[in-house]
């Protein structure tokens, strides 16, 4: 989806095995994630593909699928806690991701 704003949304994972708080896929351009609370602390699995607060990749099943996942993305003023990583966004060498901004977020208690 393009031109979507997530503002003041709370997301709470409930699985111990998997969880992606917000998943950006297939040229999800010009989106904004701001002032959100993303809690992935229930995920205790210790594999990088299993959890992230914000995930950008070109697959609904793999966390390492490269491609043009998102451009003109703003992730700002969020609180992201738990999981393997706070934010994970993949591009590739032929289709570089452009104009993404990650600003003033609190990311804590990740693996």
What's the arrangement of secondary structure elements?
Layout: E1 5-7, E2 10-12, E3 19-24, E4 32-34, E5 37-40, E6 51-56, E7 74-76, E8 79-82, E9 85-89, E10 101-103, E11 106-108
Parallel strand pairs: 1-4, 2-5, 3-6, 4-7, 5-8, 6-9, 7-10, 8-11
3D architecture notes:
Helices cover 0% and strands 39% of the residues. The protein starts with a strand and ends with a strand. The strands form three sheets. A four-stranded parallel beta sheet has the order 1-4-7-10, with no helix packed on it. A four-stranded parallel beta sheet has the order 2-5-8-11, with no helix packed on it. The protein has a three-stranded parallel beta sheet with strand order 3-6-9, with no helix packed on it. The protein has no helices and eleven strands. By secondary structure, the protein is an all-beta fold.
Features:
mainly beta, about 0% helix, about 110 residues, four-stranded parallel sheet
Q: Could you write a compact summary of the structure shown?
A:
The protein is mostly beta strands and 111 residues long. Helix content is 0%, strand content 39%. The strands form 3 sheets. It has a 4-stranded parallel beta sheet with strand order 1-4-7-10, with no helix packed on it.
Backbone structural class: mainly beta
State the strand order across the main sheet: 1-4-7-10
What are the low-pLDDT stretches, counting only 5+ consecutive residues below 50? none
Indicate the percent of residues in helices. Answer: under 10%
Q: What about the largest sheet?
A: 4 strands, parallel
H and E order: EEEEEEEEEEE
